[in-house]
Amino acid sequence: MERPGATSHHEAAGDQPLVVRTVEDHRRPARGWSRLLVVALAVLGALVLAPSAVDLIRRPTQTPVVDSLDVAAGVLYLLAAVCVAHNGRRMRMVGWMSLTALLTGALLFGLLTWTGTAPGLDSSVWADGGRRLAFLPLLLPAVAAVWMWMSDPRRIVVAAERREELTRRQG
User: Fold this and answer.
1) What is the pLDDT of residues 89-134, one digit of tens each?
2) CA max distance for the chain
3) DSSP string, 112-130
């Protein structure tokens, strides 16, 4: 809401209309290994989320903490799948946070169950580093983190600019 007699920003700049440029993404869609990684993360998320949610609903007093953590892990795996599939700056930050939480959970639960210091965590999907699911709860976030780092558009642009600068210096 403007005050009477006040000029707006574009009027003060000489009555020129404000120009808004749109940006279009002309990159080709991801195919190949990244799609396989997205599917693997989504399937693992569903495999973790569904049984834990059912257990939490059917038997809420049996192991509520472990089941709640498994539900959170399932949601994080699904979120990581979406973040790996999407290449936007904000989704990459969310992806890094979810992958960090997943790796931390897998390592922490794995360490606690391997040393035997937390016997109540044996029913978790992260128990023994995810041994029940062929260590996928530990491996998939690590692979996804490497993939996100390798496919980071900013890193790729900086590397291309460095190569271009080196070829100009040599030529």
Assistant:
1) 899 999 999 999 999 999 999 999 999 888 888 888 888 888 888 9
2) 74
3) HHHHTS-GGGTTSTTGGGT
